[in-house]
């Protein structure tokens, strides 16, 4: 039995007072790759934000990487996020520093102090995403696909148990989307769990995995052919 890494029971997702999604019951096992699909405004991002405690879990019960989302004190949110790798649609790289220093900033912010260990870790994650030679480039010197690879490398820095990728190919052309997707596939094949929200159905058909759909205020699993 592979262990459960995410469990939600009768969860409702709210944005402030507005109910976005209701009656979510879901199990994700370690090592799974799960898509979350749905139209713009269907609640995909709100669902993802609930998983990394950007939106509080007010109704139902939920745990992710052994953190209870319902009773999570605010002071523990940074500890939860160290066990999660979060990849955003718009990269969120710091424009005023090069790639190496973007990654070093995250390591320092999460408690790393040994310079040689930091350098080694940075080299390791850049190698994983095929960007080993780009450490001295600034974000504006990179293409969109390269910036997203760096964002994935950044998500890997603290060896997260699960990667939450919120529309990671949303700003990329189809060819670059496939390249970024291949990186995520490789990471998943090393045993890491990935939950990825997307509206790119071509990618889902090319790389089929378990698929959850947000529609009409619900989330339900869809069989691939019915997407």
From TrEMBL:
Record's keyword annotation contains Nucleotide-binding: yes
Record organism: Flagellimonas spongiicola
ABC transporter domain residues: 6-226
Protein name: ATP-binding cassette domain-containing protein
Keywords per UniProt: ATP-binding, Nucleotide-binding
InterPro entries: AAA+_ATPase, ABC_transporter-like_ATP-bd, ABC_transporter-like_CS, ABC_transpr_LolD-like, P-loop_NTPase
GO function terms (MF aspect): ATP binding
A Pfam family per the record: ABC_tran
Taxonomic lineage from the root: Bacteria, Pseudomonadati, Bacteroidota, Flavobacteriia, Flavobacteriales
């Amino acid at each position: 039995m592979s262990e459960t890494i995410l469990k939600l029971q009768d969860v409702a997702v709210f944005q402030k007072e507005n109910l976005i999604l209701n009656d979510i019951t879901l199990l994700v096992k370690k090592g799974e790759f799960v898509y979350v699909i749905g139209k713009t405004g269907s609640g995909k991002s709100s669902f993802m934000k609930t998983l990394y405690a950007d939106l509080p879990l007010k109704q139902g019960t939920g745990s992710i990487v052994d953190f209870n989302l319902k009773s999570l004190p605010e002071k523990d949110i940074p500890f939860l996020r160290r066990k999660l790798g979060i990849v955003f649609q718009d990269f969120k790289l710091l424009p005023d520093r090069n790639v190496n220093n973007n990654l070093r900033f995250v390591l320092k912010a999460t408690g790393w102090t040994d310079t040689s260990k930091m350098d080694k870790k940075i080299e390791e994650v850049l190698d994983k995403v095929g960007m080993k030679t780009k450490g001295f480039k600034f974000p504006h010197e990179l293409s969109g696909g390269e910036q997203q690879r760096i964002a994935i490398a950044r998500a890997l820095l603290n060896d997260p148990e699960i990667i939450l990728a919120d529309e990671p190919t949303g700003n990329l052309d189809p060819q670059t989307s496939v390249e970024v997707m291949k990186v995520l596939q490789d990471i998943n094949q090393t045993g890491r769990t990935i939950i990825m929200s997307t509206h790119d159905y071509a990618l889902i058909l090319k790389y089929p995995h378990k698929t959850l759909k947000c529609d009409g205020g619900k989330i339900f699993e869809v069989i691939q052919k019915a997407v």
